[in-house]
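@channel anyone free to eyeball this complex?
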Amino acid sequence: MTVRVGVIGAGMIGQDHIRRLTEVVTGAAVTAVTDIDQTRATQVAARVGAVAPPTGADLIGSPDVDAVLVTSWGPTHAEHVLAAVAAGKPVFCEKPLATTAEDCLRIVEAERAHGRRLVQVGFMRRFDTGYRRMKEVISSGALGAPLIVHCAHRNPTVPDGYTSAMAAQDTAVHEIDVLRWLLDDEIVSAQVVTPRATRNRFDHLKDPQIMYFETASGIRIDLEVFVNCRYGYDIQCETVAEEGLVRLPDPASVGVRTAGRHGTAVPQDWKDRFADAFDTEFREWIAAVAAGAEPTGPSAWDGYAATVITDAAVRSLDTGGPVVTVDMKPRPALYGGTA
Amino acid sequence: MTVRVGVIGAGMIGQDHIRRLTEVVTGAAVTAVTDIDQTRATQVAARVGAVAPPTGADLIGSPDVDAVLVTSWGPTHAEHVLAAVAAGKPVFCEKPLATTAEDCLRIVEAERAHGRRLVQVGFMRRFDTGYRRMKEVISSGALGAPLIVHCAHRNPTVPDGYTSAMAAQDTAVHEIDVLRWLLDDEIVSAQVVTPRATRNRFDHLKDPQIMYFETASGIRIDLEVFVNCRYGYDIQCETVAEEGLVRLPDPASVGVRTAGRHGTAVPQDWKDRFADAFDTEFREWIAAVAAGAEPTGPSAWDGYAATVITDAAVRSLDTGGPVVTVDMKPRPALYGGTA
Amino acid sequence: MTVRVGVIGAGMIGQDHIRRLTEVVTGAAVTAVTDIDQTRATQVAARVGAVAPPTGADLIGSPDVDAVLVTSWGPTHAEHVLAAVAAGKPVFCEKPLATTAEDCLRIVEAERAHGRRLVQVGFMRRFDTGYRRMKEVISSGALGAPLIVHCAHRNPTVPDGYTSAMAAQDTAVHEIDVLRWLLDDEIVSAQVVTPRATRNRFDHLKDPQIMYFETASGIRIDLEVFVNCRYGYDIQCETVAEEGLVRLPDPASVGVRTAGRHGTAVPQDWKDRFADAFDTEFREWIAAVAAGAEPTGPSAWDGYAATVITDAAVRSLDTGGPVVTVDMKPRPALYGGTA
Amino acid sequence: MTVRVGVIGAGMIGQDHIRRLTEVVTGAAVTAVTDIDQTRATQVAARVGAVAPPTGADLIGSPDVDAVLVTSWGPTHAEHVLAAVAAGKPVFCEKPLATTAEDCLRIVEAERAHGRRLVQVGFMRRFDTGYRRMKEVISSGALGAPLIVHCAHRNPTVPDGYTSAMAAQDTAVHEIDVLRWLLDDEIVSAQVVTPRATRNRFDHLKDPQIMYFETASGIRIDLEVFVNCRYGYDIQCETVAEEGLVRLPDPASVGVRTAGRHGTAVPQDWKDRFADAFDTEFREWIAAVAAGAEPTGPSAWDGYAATVITDAAVRSLDTGGPVVTVDMKPRPALYGGTA
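replying in thread with the prediction:
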């Protein structure tokens, strides 16, 4: 059975996922595409033999759409996800689930009312082989309880439109999600401090930033976010536990010795670094949808949690760096909680 | 357009490729399966909604088969590949192309007569990211001309049926193919010597073996083949050139520090080590077939060359380790040669 | 000319340095040894043909002692160093220079009054090849200005007598000194937070601890101190700068592949890890003394600074983790300052 | 007790060892220096307060010389070593022990006649920490019996005077000695083959060369000797055994990430790469001499063996690459043999 996917949002990331659904992942077809730019929607749809309904609501309601992929502008996510849930259709929403905690909660509530999980949020790191092996090591208990996690998230450069708050909202949010999952623990406070700034940034931007998080069980996380590091796209993660530590590997790269140096290439682009993770993410999502099962990836609750924690980090940044308690609702039973 | 593939040979490797064509690679379907064991063929075919014609010839002749995959027992390869070429259908043949140089040449001649390439041989390393990066580095000329290649091919263990000649025929053959491609050069002599044997082998087996190859331009290759190395499946390759060297990376693996050691896992299985290469191999083959293009992977000529070089290595092993000249025919124009 | 060294304190570290001065470093002899345990002093002295004067003061005053090495119990350091300065003799004092900032200042003042540097403090990391190379890279300017330093200082285990304050006083003090030197910058605030504690500690101990430091130029340092990490003695340091980063190497260690793992040994002991640094430290100190030059290693001022910063860290730990401003006097001209 | 060393040969290597004996190693003094250039001898001697006798014989006979260091031109080694043995004085001879097997044997016979070992030959790799750890791993038996050793010995460049035979005599001789010791096995045959030559060499030189050795127990060694590799001084050694392998580490070096690359420095000079090994070599030699013990380093027999094996390698090179049997006498009891 082929899962017929309708895609809302035909920009860069939308087109990349359409390529993935049509060329990389088996068992899927893209049958409908919408975009705020109708011309673009029509062009992109034509390439894959899909139709271009006038609105997201039309797409969601189409009998030729089994599942919905939301890759539109962030502020429109909640509306489309809610509509998909209302229609009882599985929906994959690129991060963020919604731009406000309130909207995230509305989705959570709608899903609870529906009674089973329909929503998956696009945090792809949970599908990366390195993180998965790290989780296996931690979960095995061989190293005892995790105590500390050291992380770095570095981009070579960002455009002028990238704001200081986006360091948490767009960048650190990936670590926020993957660490909650990796540690099977909840983040209860956030703090953001700003070291000396790099000269290689636009003036308005605080870069680098260092974020500190604490979990319910007392694990402390430090995360360097440095989005103009120049040398490459570099993701580091090391979990220190009672009997040892486990570290995310650098991507395999041929070693070259020449001119007095032994060197390996550092990735330059997040799309390359996590290409396999994106593929796996969609492969597993399509498989779950095809099986009529609940999705196994990040839930609406995870999307809510990420937003709430991100909000706390931004508040810390905006108010001079205090520790900000994360104000999270009790976790509903649908998501493994007791509420 | 979906490429409809007929699969001849439904054993372990055949089934793995069927899974790949149906679950991993887009744009392909398996429409027919045959096997010497008709019951097995029927069962495997049923799982993917394919038919199970009585013979390979029937499968090749079927109008529902666009392309043929040969994964049957090695001695039957030539017959099926020749039939596919006769039918003018693209055919992917697992290594070896044929078990004798004569049969390989028959296929080469048939393909020449046909006038364009139809055959691809299943040497998957050319599709491995590490080897591809190494080839880019070498081809860029930044390191000057390659002079020496050091290789190791180690398996944790082999079953009793694995013979001393299989070290060349089944194991080293992967390096033979990938090095010819990597260096864009031809192997002109082979030699096999036997160090002290490991205690961890069946008595009849010479293990480890060391193979030396020389290319037309004078590059020398040493290849350790050690198929009972116990510790894992380990593939090493280092090309030394005039201005430096380039080395195949070990697969990325989380680092763990515990109990006084920093450690990473060594793969245990060739299917894991080259899983991505297999996927890419089939993805590119299906894309070429779908486009009506000649395949870009190893050709019938490469299959012939591998067999002739392997034969020379086995002759060296069987006669006490002399240098044996590779007796290769001139390369036809169809394969980039002048004959 | 042989430098005749008198050693005050014949305990484990004293004996190790006596071995170093007599067996490893050329140009030195140990001519006198004292200890609070006179019998031990006599025995240790006898082994190297030295005398055992009754008191440190006698030793310092002896015409057969050119330079003094203080390796006695920390609270006695100040008295002996002051006596050596009063006698105008070069003195090497194991860390800490003194156990209170006031005593450190008294030494600084005495040295200023003397008019030239006589004191070197035993922070050996400045003599480690890895840190020296890192300093070269930073100082070259090739990476731009340093912005962040990530450090870890892990010991496999500590005895019951090790207190929570010692994490700063005895352990982190090494990073405090080496980072001031590495960055050529002053630490202006300290903060200590406590993650979830390891089960592998004595109950009274807060372990691990994380320390945050900020420098005058805004560089932020995070330092994990984990003294019951179990797996080994592990020192990590990574300096992130505007154009890239530089990382301290792990000690070279043979790689072993067996039983599915590639592994290297992690050092178990600080004396092994920094054995070469200790040797170099004493070699350079003896060379400076022999040349009649001022010592080039950590100064009395550095000893004072380390104590003041350590005090701030302990105050943070003791008061629940606030950021504590380092209350440091202006740096005198003798130590490169303007006071 | 200070060991008073007389040094025969005040060239570059002689002066470096004089520095080592006077500045690095404790318990030694250089009391006499000779050289074929009497002026140079006088100058070098003056620097360390030594005398400059007219001849090596005078130096050896001097009552102020306890032990002799021979660092003169290779062809003069035998004469001086024989004179030292005749005088019953410990003698450290830089490699080679002698330039012909016959002269080496004369020294062996003289030492046998003397009845105890006096001679140590200057193969410093046995004193390198990496090789020592590798030997510990092999000797522990944890990896089973060694079967194969892969080596590379690369220099960035060599001067015009370096001949093709020197690849064995001056370069590979280090591996020949250290592998005999590492494996506790004897080399019984040698073969040298020549790959395509690098453009970066003087025309008369065959570079690179590949040498194959076989030991009495059947271990096979391949050694790449590449003395114009350009990128650095690089020593590789990997021993493959029945249950796993052990590999010499690269020297520790700070890692730098910048401009898209992660890189570490490759040493450029053998004196840097093996500086610690040279120091340890002399430290242990002086300790043995001071204790009146036989030296523990490479013996006269090892010097003879290295020369005989080197001769076989050169013969192979000169005669087109055949396997040449090493023609070694039976090992005398003085050196652990039965003759």
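from a first look: The longest strand of chain A covers residues 146-154.
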